[in-house]
Write a structure and sequence with these properties.
This protein is an all-alpha fold. The protein is built from three helices and no strands. The protein has one domain (about 5-120).
């Protein structure tokens, strides 16, 4: 009559009774609730940390974009400044070239004028020497005296 299955059933009923008497289900439920609360707190902390990380990422991305924009502005400013300096340098070089060209032309004109004056002086000296030689050989006496007087009068008229 009392076989092994009967004693297993009786033992099981006693075991469940002891569990109910000592309120083990309440302890198990409390332990499970505590574990659930810890997990929820950890999930909330993970969400908060994730949101902070996303906020930091967004902030750094904004700073990166601002830095890239500043760099682009600096590059554009430098290019504009370089272009302006190139234009100024070109204008200065053209001005210097124009002044030097004008100075060279002036020097050339002065050299031409000096050369013409030197040629005229040399021609005049040669003409005077030739005239003097011809006059010495061909003119004598009263004609020579008249030419000398005429030259003196011409000199007086030129200097007076």
């Amino acid at each position: 009559m009392f076989d092994a299955e009967f004693w297993v059933a009786i033992s099981f009923v006693i075991f469940v009774g002891v569990l109910i008497y000592f309120r083990v289900q309440k302890l198990a439920v409390d332990a499970i609730d505590d574990r659930r609360a810890r997990i929820e707190a950890e999930l909330a902390e993970a969400r908060r940390l994730r949101e902070e990380a996303q906020a930091l990422l967004a902030q750094y991305q904004r700073k990166q974009h601002e830095a890239e924009r500043e760099a682009a502005d600096i590059i554009a400013g430098a290019q504009a400044e370089a272009a302006r300096l190139a234009i100024e340098a070109k204008a200065k070089m053209e001005d210097i070239l124009a002044r030097r060209t004008k100075m060279a032309e002036t020097k050339i004109a002065q050299a031409e004028a000096q050369a013409v004056a030197d040629v005229r002086a040399a021609a005049a000296a040669a003409a005077v020497a030739a005239a003097e030689k011809i006059l010495k050989e061909t003119v004598h006496g009263n004609v020579a005296d008249g030419l000398i007087a005429k030259g003196i009068e011409d000199l007086g008229a030129l200097s007076g």
